[in-house]
């Protein structure tokens, strides 16, 4: 009878260990998989904020405020394309790598062909209406 009791106790302990492993390792809460990206869109020549510019990261997008500031929530961790434009400017295209964290800062400089500014990115393209 003593032997059966010991086997039963060992079995219960093993079951508890397996349950703890399952809860704390297998079912552990997923790390945050998205971040908030903020920054400013600025005129490449004057360095002043650009109001109303569109900023796109992956599937998320927004427009800049009166100071050129933007905030995009829900940006996935990993490689993403950061795009920005405003009518009359060249497109800004850049590949960025997002790592987990609370807040990522990415500033953007937009160039304007009528101001004789260089593009700054080989893959930038002028917007067409």
CATH class of the largest domain: Mainly Beta
Q: What integer value in Å does the Rg equal? A: 26 Å
What gap, in angstroms, lies between the N and C termini?
A: 88 Å
Largest sheet: 4 strands, mixed
General form: rod-shaped
Structural class: alpha/beta
- Runs with pLDDT <50, length 5+? 118-129
CATH level 3 topology of the largest domain: Immunoglobulin-like
User: In sequence order, what are the helices and strands, one letter per element?
Assistant: HEEEEEEEE
The CATH architecture term of the largest domain is: Sandwich
CATH superfamily of the largest domain: Carboxypeptidase-like, regulatory domain
Mean pLDDT: 81
Number of strands: 8
Whole-number total of structural domains: 2
Enumerate how many helices there are, as a single number: 1
Give the helices and strands, then pairings.
Blueprint: H1 2-26, E1 34-43, E2 54-57, E3 60-63, E4 69-76, E5 78-85, E6 92-98, E7 103-105, E8 108-110
Parallel strand pairs: 1-7, 1-8
Antiparallel strand pairs: 1-4, 2-3, 2-5, 5-6
List the defining traits of the structure above.
1 helix, 2 domains, disordered C terminus, alpha/beta, four-stranded antiparallel beta sheet, 129 residues, Immunoglobulin-like, four-stranded mixed beta sheet, single chain
């Amino acid at each position: 009878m003593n032997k059966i009791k010991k086997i039963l106790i060992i079995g219960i302990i093993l079951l508890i260990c397996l349950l703890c492993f399952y809860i704390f390792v297998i079912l552990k809460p997923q790390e945050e998989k998205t971040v908030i990206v903020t920054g400013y869109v600025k005129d490449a020549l004057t360095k002043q904020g650009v109001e109303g510019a569109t900023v796109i990261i992956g599937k998320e997008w927004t427009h800049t405020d009166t100071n050129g500031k933007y905030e995009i929530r829900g940006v996935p961790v990993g490689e993403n394309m950061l795009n920005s434009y405003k009518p009359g400017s060249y497109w800004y295209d850049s590949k960025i790598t997002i790592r987990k964290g609370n807040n990522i800062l990415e500033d953007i400089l937009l160039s304007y062909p009528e101001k004789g500014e260089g593009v700054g990115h080989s893959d930038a393209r002028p917007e067409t209406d």
